[in-house]
Amino acid sequence: MSCQVWVDRQKATVLRCPTADRLTPWVAAAVAAALPDRAPAVVGVCARFVDAAEGQALNQQYRHKNYATNVLSFPFDTPLPDESDQERYLGDLVLCQPVLVEEARAQGKSLTAHTAHLIVHGVLHLLGFDHETPAQAEEMEGLEIQVLAQLGFENPYRER
Question: What pLDDT was estimated at residue 12?
């Protein structure tokens, strides 16, 4: 089952960032993989690209960690959709663009591939997936690898 996806893309950094049109298929693929039989008809996500100062402030405020991290996920506080849900706002993703640029460079990946990975990763968090235990990490990483392969990207966990 496929769903219609809308992405509210916000740019709060001077660095280049993907457009909402570029982000939309990444979000759609993650939702389809995570909710293959119960995706709502319409899904919404906000993706905000920020600078290091805002990324650090948000990470400090919400995770009590005083550094900018690559992606933060803020799920909209509703239960997972069921067959009766027609529309669903999943929540907000905050991506720290300077961190993404540096990680992509350090890992020898394209910025596009790394950003796609973190969008997929963040959307899975919005849908309730986590990686706190080995079993959770295996499930979540498996979905990420599957989705990214469908989108034409390499396994982000493969050693380079």
Answer: 97
3-state secondary structure 42-111: EEEEEEEEECHHHHHHHHHHHHCCCCCCCEEEEECCCCCCCCCCCEEEEEEEEEEHHHHHHHHHHHCCCH
Distances (CA, A) of 34 to 5, 6, 8, 77: 14, 17, 21, 18
Tokens of 101: 């640029």
Residue 10, SS3? strand
Q: For residue 84, what pLDDT band results from cuts at 50, 70 and 90?
A: low
Q: Domains along the chain?
A: 4-150 (3.40.390.30)
pLDDT per residue as tens digits for the range 130-157? 999 999 999 999 999 999 999 999 999 9
